[in-house]
Specification:
about 425 residues, 9-stranded mixed beta sheet, about 30% strand, Glucose-1-phosphate adenylyltransferase
Length: about 425
């Protein structure tokens, strides 16, 4: 165990780019791959790296996230480990009482936890990324370079570089400049990394000549405390790092494996459906470094007949005869009626089972029961938890139209239809009828 290192996971943002998935929950609590939540990824990476003292900083819509943490990550009293929530809160010190104003400000308002005795390093992580990293390797890089700060970076091409903070390095890997989302050719050329330098570390660039910050930072504790106490800077990328680069030794840790920033509806949708393919870019069934989540003690799913291709079907589902499921992710406790068709869709499932008598009552009352109704067709969509989709519903994006808009309770984002949590679609509903 890394006894002198603690981890801080930033989970307090509003998550506006993931709306409506973040309407009722924080970003890190958004479901992933049928049975996980986004927060399970950074916490699992910490635990698999021997880091068992983890703080999670939260602010918006954090109730379900708190419940998931409480019910999932429990340590015995002898290990000294914990995953502890640091919610925005009122304090006697007025400086600590306001809402978090940015990533650096969120950490500043929780310095008393960082300043505890025996802590030498602080690892700062994001709560909305999909990757697998051994942080021991990053700590080795940090110590080997005798760095004050180490930033995890991944090579990207010029088009992708415009959406990230990009590092400029010297020949030793020390960061000499940091440009947030470079847009012009001049800015890009300024931070371009020599492919031969990358090759010396075993990385073949293939036009990925720019090192993007992954939002993963390793600080010497005392320096982090000094930087936050001596300034009022609110953001690491825009304010803290430019100062640290000029005054201190900032190095990069190279990472050339799968990493996805799941910050938008399209990125979230694409990342989840990619997991259902024959060669997924990220594997959850990795014996040496599993991704942990809540144990729900659900039974195996019942597939009562139909066709299933390139899909993930989670625990506790009931799939009625005649159903076609293709290139989709089906979440926990999903009930799919007869002869339904689900393609290119992430159905998040349900938080509870609906008893047979309650399903029968709903049908008699002309209310769709929980799940997907008989004969419905869903394609190119995200169906959030606890939704009720009636019989013969046609939930398919209008052809050739990718403009963000609303069709009754359904929102379209980046050409993807999103049915928010707890929403209902009556029998026979379709996009055309809702226009």
């Amino acid at each position: 165990m890394n006894r002198n290192l603690i981890s801080l996971i930033l989970g307090g943002g509003k998550g506006t780019r993931l709306f409506p998935l973040t309407r009722d929950r924080s970003k890190p609590a958004v479901p992933l791959a049928g049975k996980y939540r986004l927060i399970d990824v950074p916490i699992s990476n910490c635990l698999n790296s021997g880091i068992n003292r983890v703080y999670l900083i939260t602010q918006f819509n954090s109730v379900s996230l708190h419940r998931h943490i409480r019910e999932t990550y429990k340590f015995d009293r002898f290990s000294g480990g914990f995953v502890e929530i640091l919610a925005a809160q009122q304090a006697m010190d007025q400086a600590e009482s306001d809402w978090y104003q940015g990533t650096a400000d969120a950490v500043r308002k929780n310095l008393r936890y960082i300043e505890q005795h025996g802590i030498e390093h602080v690892l700062i992580l994001s709560g909305d990324q999909l990757y697998r990293m051994n942080f021991d390797d990053m700590l080795h890089t940090h110590r080997g370079a005798k760095a004050d700060v180490t930033i995890a970076t991944t090579p990207v091409n010029a088009a992708a570089a415009k959406g990230f903070g990009i590092m400029q390095l010297d020949s030793t890997g020390r960061v000499t400049d940091f440009v947030e989302k470079p847009q012009t050719d001049e800015q890009l050329e300024q931070v371009r990394t020599d492919p031969e330098w990358l090759k010396s570390f075993g990385i073949i660039a293939n036009s990925r000549d720019y090192l993007a910050s992954m939002g993963i930072y390793l600080f010497n504790r005392d320096l982090l405390v000094d930087l936050l106490k001596s300034t009022s800077h609110e953001d690491f990328g825009k304010e803290i790092f430019p100062q640290a680069i000029s005054d201190h030794k900032v190095h990069v840790h190279l990472f050339d494996d799968y990493w996805e920033d799941i910050g938008t509806i399209k990125a979230f949708y694409d990342a989840n459906l990619a997991l259902a393919g024959p060669n997924p870019p990220f594997e959850f069934n990795y014996e040496d470094a599993p991704i942990y989540t809540q144990s729900r003690y659900l039974p195996a799913s019942r597939l009562l007949g139909g066709a299933y291709h390139r899909s993930l079907i989670s625990d506790g589902c009931v799939i009625e005869p005649g159903t076609t499921i293709e290139n989709s992710v089906i979440g926990l406790r999903t009930h799919v009626g007869r002869n339904a068709t689900i393609r290119n869709t992430f159905i998040m499932g349900a938080d509870f089972y609906q008893k047979p008598e309650h399903r029968a009552y709903d049908l008699e009352s002309n209310r769709p029961p929980l799940g997907i109704g008989e004969g419905s067709v869903i394609d190119g969509a995200i169906v959030d938890k606890n939704c009720r989709v009636g019989r013969n519903v046609h939930l398919v994006p209008p052809e050739g139209d990718k403009q963000d808009r609303e069709f009754g309770p359904v929102l379209m984002r980046d050409g993807i239809l999103v049915l928010p949590k707890h929403a209902e679609l009556p029998d026979g509903w379709s996009v055309d009828k809702a226009r």
